Amino acid sequence: MSGVDLGMPSFPDAARRAVRDAQLRHNLGKATNTIRNKRAAVVGELDDWEQLRASGAAIKTHTLSNLDSYLERFESAVTAAGGTVHWARDAAEANRIVTELVLETGETEAVKVKSMATQEIGLNEALSSAGISAWETDLAELIVQLDEDRPSHILVPAIHRNRSEIREIFRREMAGSGTPAPADLTDDPVQLAEAARHHLRDKFLRARVAISGANFAVAETGGLVVVESEGNGRMCLTMPEHLISVVGIEKIVPTWRDLEVFLQLLPRSSTGERMNPYTSVLNGVTAGDGPSDFHVVLLDNGRSEALADEIGSQALRCIRCSACLNVCPVYERTGGHAYGSVYPGPIGAVLTPQLYGVESEDTASLPYASTLCGACYDVCPVAIEIPELLVHLRNRTVRQRKGWVDRLTKTAMRAMGWVFGDSGRLARAQRVASLGGGLFGERGVGRLPWPLSRWTDARDAPTPPAESFRQWWERTRTSDEDRR
């Protein structure tokens, strides 16, 4: 379970601490609001946005339904183009394959393109244990790596940091791993970007090994597609002699033509742009142009199990745009670290439990990290029914629970079923509840004793009405004859 910090507190505990951090909430609120507004503007320009969403969902659903054949077709195309495909069942196998490939080159360092898959498996840590330094070249990933922090957003991993904090990180940490930051560095974005550029330049020029992920893998051609905004990906994919790409098996699309849909959906949903600045496509090995050897590690790591879930499998349609994070009221207040996974926000709340199971408290609490408001579904470019998945996973979580909490829950549900199963019992229960209106008055319910305190500690409980709907109906709508 490399992608989940099993030693971390559960989401409720981590979120409780996060919401007390006023600076974090300010940083998140400002950043997500900016991205959210940019997305809305460029999506609003397209009259056929909903048709594009439907097309993207249909392509992904079709591909997942025939994933075995498309993976084999992709392997054949990569091999024909001079590349090598490796199959990894889990994080440990993927890390072993990549480590061995780097060691075979004789190198002790590599530059990296931003990759969720390599974060998921903990590749940097695995390489470090083998004496290999892996340098992140995406600006936000560089910030996180220098600060020995963890990403908190899919698109903007350092979204929880503001400019002043980034300046201090650069001034404090850059000298220890390469070109230092200028002594007079300010928090001006241009200066910060320039400092990062100089810091990374030497690494690009001397690197002989690069490691990447991929946004899409085209079965028809064997091509890997990497979309990015800074040009660091282009440098990694073209300058080093050896390229190793770790790609989740769900990233496959059938044909080159399918990219027509996704290259409209992804940039608008992620960065709020009509098209991304850099789109790199790698098709095997070409003498004198780009890497001299090319390896693709196809990663399962729980994806096959998720694919077997008829409802849950739609989470594998995700194209990692992060639109759901930017509209989620829970994420905006807690940030990504509270989720304990490289996949935060609504998509992380449904993807992580499927990749790693719901047996541990780390993952079992994630499906509850949502208000079920539905905003995540509204913005998802491939129409993943995230609220439906959250309810589905909550069901799975409850079913696998053992012990006294489970027995208490079942007892409470049976009691409720007994009350609601008979109109007479329900009417008597309502009359008893109506007494609470006079008991609590205008001050409200406040805190109830345990176990009801688990509810009132987290939300306001409404004051029971002095008169139930049934009583009101009988009083105002029932004739004297009906009463007799």
TrEMBL record:
One of its GO terms (molecular function) is 4 iron, 4 sulfur cluster binding. SUPFAM superfamilies: 4Fe-4S ferredoxins, NagB/RpiA/CoA transferase-like. Residues 472-484 have a biased composition (Basic and acidic residues). PROSITE patterns: 4FE4S_FER_1 (PS00198). Keywords: 4Fe-4S, Electron transport, Iron, Iron-sulfur, Metal-binding, Repeat, Transport. GO terms for biological process: lactate metabolic process. It comes from the Bacteria. Residues 71-298 form the LUD domain. The keyword Transport applies. This is L-lactate dehydrogenase complex protein LldF. It comes from Actinopolyspora xinjiangensis.
